[in-house]
Amino acid sequence: MCGIVGYVGKRNAVPVLIEGLKRLEYRGYDSAGLAIIENNNLIVLKRKGKIIALQRELQKISLKTNIGIAHTRWATHGEPSDKNAHPHIDNSGKIAVVHNGIIENYRALRKFLESKGHEFSTETDTEVIAHLISEMLKETDDFEDATRLALLELEGTYGLGIINLEEPDRIYAARHGSPLLIGAGEGENIIASDATAVVRYTNRVIYLEEGEYAVIKANDFYIRNLQREFIEPKVEKISFSLQELEKGGYQHFMLKEIYEQPQTLKNAFLGRLVVEDGISRLNGLKPYHDLLANSERISITACGTSWHSALIGEYLIEELVRIPVEVEYASEFRYRSPILNEKTPVFVISQSGETADTLAALHEAKRHGAKVFGIVNCVGSTIARETDSGVYIHAGPEIGVASTKAFTSQVMVLSLISLMLGRMKGLPAEIGRKLTIELKQIPDKVQSILDHETKTGQIKEIAEIFKNHQNVLYLGRGFNFPVALEGALKLKEISYIHAEGYPAAEMKHGPIALIDNNMPVLFIATDDPLYKKIISNIEEVRTRGGRVIAVATEGNESIKELAEHVIYIPNTEHMFIPMLSVIPLQLLAYQIAVLRGCNIDQPRNLAKSVTVE
Ligand code: AGP
Predict the structure, then answer these.
(1) Could you say which of 201, 377, 430, 605 is the most buried, measured as most Cβ atoms within 10 Å of its Cβ?
(2) Do you find a cis peptide bond into 443, omega within 30 degrees of 0?
């Protein structure tokens, strides 16, 4: 969850570290800090709050150095405070450590270190690492080896950046379960939790693998494993530009990302849809065609918004491929003795590619001998690299904590996978052609929803009316049920309004008790095989005084008699409707949160990449 950046090289490290932290702030934002070596002093500065608080401190002093490490935190052990912010130092004041992950055996280590005379000043798990390295220096004069010996004692997960006053020309980096990469520049090198922090300086990156550490100087670096064997660095290119990391004139990243969807949806199918043959080609899955064609069951696992797209994947595959699909929360997957074998392909969906629960589910699936395929956005992320293969969604960097464009692109990719599998298993070419044509029209239809809102501001007006409500119910059926879940999640995570999503008919089994004339109920009532059924559900809400907002298909005039507000969207194949019906819900959540003065891109308590269990 936390963000790490470290710099050694020809520039003043301080602005590089701050710029890097800002890029990584979406990973955690309850406190920030840095450690640098200047004129033979190890200087540590850290502040509770966003990076701006740290910047204000930096304005009071002038620091110039060529080496430093920095951190933006999402607290796990110890409340957000100046003291608990990273970096953490040992008692000699010579070793500084920034850490992303959780040291599970920190209590035992702390006890041991205290018995050896180390005095702790924070409540964090991370502080043990600085003290442990210092303790290991009693066994060896070699700082690298002391660090390695300390790493061998750690249980849990870590991405680490370490500097040592005695070696002011180098940074140590290590990785176990939390991502870390080296950006290789000319006369400078950077370490970071992800590539967004290095792309300004270089587009050449080396991802550390599990159990590897690196020693990095301005002009060179080497990588070793914990057995001290040297590892040949594998240099990869960053797949996005600096421009994609900017707001580009939008007030918030979330809004920018909502408006990017016509393009990101196109990117998801570009070069993959063959209309003449009514098929989709997904190169990553090609070597596994036999396995996929013969599979009798598919398992999908993910968290949060990605779990919602997994549910849509279930509906898509069952409808087009006619084989059973099981969707499981990744956080539950490994604790439920899943029934898997080498014949059951497992798909893991993750925007960030770093979600700890999803990664653990991936490992569990592999342990059962299953082939695991990723549906991932971040190129080179841990999940992308640890899966057997997969399909990138190519949505570009998603910075807003509330996932928007990644969701629609995941659904697009799941549509392509379903089409591919369906055609393998006997879906007629004619239907395939119809579906490919329809999929290609989705971006323009999304564009028309966005254009309508830009022109009329209708959703903004609805937001104004409902912004002070404390509860909202989202109801949908069939393919729109997961959309109802997603709409509710969007609202609660950025506006802090309590919202629940339900299959519309399930309402009468409990939630209906909540309905009175103060309860907004958002129905997704598009033209599909369940339309008449959902109209009955709307009547049930109206009878009890509930205030109905409906997302309906263009041309449906009659629904105006039932709903206080109707937001129209274009029609499409019922199974592709989530890519359209979710757009007004994203906009509504966004507008309500803006009106409530919430922090849109960095909602409280959340982080973009959830790298702890
Ligand atoms: C989405 O708006 C959320 N911030 C969250 O639910 C997210 O989808 C979840 O943490 C999974 O993340 P991933 O897709 O990066 O694995």
Answers:
(1) 377
(2) no
Structure tokens given for 259: 């408006």
Q: Which two tokens stand for residue 148?
A: 């390695």
Cα dihedral value 432, 437, 438, 442, nearest 10: 130
Q: How far is the CA of 323 from the centre of ligand 1 (A)?
A: 27
Residue whose structure tokens are 């994203």: 586
CB 266 within 8 A of CB 273: no
Q: Are the beta carbons of 205 and 217 closer than 8 angstroms?
A: no
Atom from ligand 1 closest to the CA of residue 406: 14
pLDDT band at 376 (very low <50, low <70, confident <90, very high): very high
Please answer whether residues 205 and 195 qualify as being in contact, where contact means their C-beta atoms are separated by less than 8 angstroms. yes
What is the best residue among 252, 355, 357 to mutate for testing ligand 1's pocket, by most ligand atoms within 8 Å of CB? 355
**Is 598 considered catalytic here?**
no
**Residue 497 φ/ψ, nearest 5 degrees:** -90, 140
Structure tokens at 387: 């899966």
Tell me: the pLDDT tens digits for 408-428? 999 999 999 999 999 999 999
User: Is the pLDDT assigned to residue 58 strictly greater than 90?
Assistant: yes
What are the phi and psi torsion angles at 430 (to 5°)? -60, -45
Which of 130, 228, 235 minimizes the C-alpha distance to 189? 235
Residue 141 falls in which region: left (phi positive, over 0), alpha (psi -120 to 50) or beta? alpha
Ligand 1 center to 6 CA (angstroms): 26
